[in-house]
Fold this sequence. Notes:
- The protein has 489 residues and is of the alpha+beta class.
- It folds into two domains: 35-97 and 204-391, Rossmann fold (3-Layer(aba) Sandwich), CATH 3.40.50; 103-195, Sandwich (Immunoglobulin-like).
- It contains ten helices and 24 strands.
- The strands form seven sheets. A seven-stranded mixed β-sheet has the order 2-3-1-11-12-13-18. Strands 8-7-6-10 form a four-stranded antiparallel β-sheet.
- Strand 4 (103-111) and strand 5 (114-123) form a beta hairpin.
- The longest helix is centred in the C-terminal third of the chain and has 21 residues, at 393-413.
- The chain is globular, with a radius of gyration of 29 Å.
- The N and C termini lie far apart (84 Å).
- 35% of the residues are buried.
Amino acid sequence: MSGGTWTTQDKVLPDAYINFKGVSKPLASVGTRGVVTAPLALSWGPEGELFELTSEKFYGSTSLPIVGLTAYDTTEQAIRLREALKYSPKGLFYRIAGTGSAKASKVLISATDVALTATAKYKGVFGNSISVGIAVNRTVGETVYYDVTVYVNGTARAKLSNVSTIAQITDSADNGYVAFTATGAPTLAAVSPVALTGGSDGTVTETVAGLADYFTLIGKKKWNCMAIPFNVGSDLGTIKTKIKAWRDGGLKAQIAVWSADEDNVANAAADYEGIIQTDGQGYATADDDIVVTPEAFLMAVAGMTAGAEAYESNTCKTIDDAVRIVRYDSTGALVDGSLEKEDLINKLNAKVNGTKAGYFCLQMDDDDSVIVAKDINSFSSFVSNYGYDFSKNRIIREIDQTDADISSMWRKSYAGKITNKSTGRDVFKGDVEEYFKEQERLDIIEKIDDETLVTLDIAQGTDKDAVVVGAFVKFCDSMEILYLTVNCI
């Protein structure tokens, strides 16, 4: 047998002392994105709470018990969700509470001083589309067994089978749609399907001031882009303050907004990389089968921003099925929203004649498809050390992803775990260098010159627990603008 393992070189007995170690691997990998969030006026779901909805469930028609909608509904509520989840795999949504909202309910069985009542799980008019029926399943001796079925718009969505007592119904597991309560001791009996009534959304007011609870809840979560799907008007400054505080505090995210005056004319852009600001455009499909309003298009902008990987740009992204661009006129009617080339340039964050605009716009392509003109945010006050690059959403995603990944590696593998001396710092430096090599493979960064990928200077900070790192990194962007000269001979 071997002499064992060793920690320090202090052995006396001649033998082989052997340690086995795994080959060191990078502790950080390039993370993934894909979480969109928004506050919404809905007719089903928990009020004043965050809830998760995935594109898989929404497009797979298993989202009814969650939000009362599927991707195949054509209401404004469904279109807004569909636009977000078309591009992003997961959403963290918040249902804005309505004043005077109510749950639908129905007494199924009643007699003197006794009753069995079905009550919708959530408040809202969707509850009125629910009905409940009780049917005989079988009889064994003197015992009758029943099936309790919950329907939505006439389609069975949940069933409780072979129950013979009221208690089995009232104590049953959550079915996603209704809860059962009993007063007294009603006798179980067959009931033809009967609709719940009284469900109401109440009065929902969409204002930035009314989103304080949402901001508190979502500020504790990890997400990539938020849509505020209504005209925020003069509250743009409040939103800028909020997202700036989040980004400065480590929550690297962006918000898609539309800010316009009472005539639906866009207000000045926010001039901040954390805000993606539309010009109030939306789009329509052929024959206006689906009209994506300017409010709903904000959900699309947030979804495609959240769903894009760090190395992807949405510039010239085709909006599927769109055939024309729309916007509101001063009366609130939807009219043609396409822009002439000069107007479009003036809306973009273009370095033309000192123009500083910063709007995320749609444009008609030569083949009459609708595309994203340029994947930009609202930042336009360029200075020498904070310039045009920071107006590009792809570069912001690359920067934000780098921040999130290295911060996570530091917390999980170094903070409080590794001694702050040169050997420990060199290990951290090595892991950061390996991380940047993976970023180069993914086209997130490129070499500074022919030989150098990144430069990293690392040292102990002023305090003994501090590490100071200086890095030079060259982030990539996508090809967008072509300058071509053809010499004809």
